[in-house]
Amino acid sequence: MTWSEMVPLLWEATKESAYMVLVATLLTAVGGLLVGVALVLTDRGGLLALRPVNALLGLIVNIGRSLPFIILLVAIIPFTRAVVGTTIGTSAAIVPLTVGAIPFYARIVETAIREVNRDVVAAARAMGASRREIVVKVLLREARPGLVAGLTITVVALVGYSAMAGVVGGGGLGDLAIRYGYQRFETEVMIATVVLLVVFVQLAQMLGDLVARRLSHR
């Protein structure tokens, strides 16, 4: 394959991968944050201590984290079809990407919030702050550097997941690498997709580290 033929394919695949990762990241940030906060609040000694709910949430999160992504990708095909109407393409790939990443990020959120100084929470409660104010203005605010750092790790994982989605026709750089690099023995395409995936990861890591450092200095 000539360079002039390769560039349009790489450009289209790069846009598809960026779209998948961006949308999945936004959905994961919201879903993972909600689940992570719920894990903290419903635990013993939490603001909404409900051990049965906490145990159920923990079980669901652990199951989600334990499944290899390629198995999850296939296992939730009926759910993916129900959500987007198809199991092929970038929009379809976003569903398993999000489902696989939310449990991963939820545990990171839980850990980051648990690291918040308990004295700060106690002081807020003593001043009459409501549960919502404690969560938003104390827990999440104090945990911001850890939340951003954790989201960065999640984005890096999503880049890898998005490439794996190419196995089932999810589009993006993974799909291009399989169709041309593997099936047609186009070594140049395989190398180019690997380089682009590395660039994706580097950019995500640099941006996440920058934001986390700025938040930690405030």
From TrEMBL:
PROSITE patterns linked: ABC_TM1
Family named by the database record: Belongs to the binding-protein-dependent transport system permease family. CysTW subfamily.
Coiled coil: none
Species this protein is from: Asanoa ishikariensis
Statement: the UniProt record of this protein carries the keyword Transferase: no
Taxon lineage: Bacteria, Bacillati, Actinomycetota, Actinomycetes, Micromonosporales
Compartment list: Cell membrane
TM regions (residue ranges): 20-41, 53-77, 83-106, 147-169, 189-212
Domain ABC transmembrane type-1: start-end pairs: 14-208
Membrane topology listed for this record: Multi-pass membrane protein
Organism superkingdom: Bacteria
Keywords: Cell membrane, Membrane, Transmembrane, Transmembrane helix, Transport
Protein name in UniProt: D-methionine transport system permease protein
GO annotations of cellular component type: plasma membrane
GO biological process: D-methionine transmembrane transport
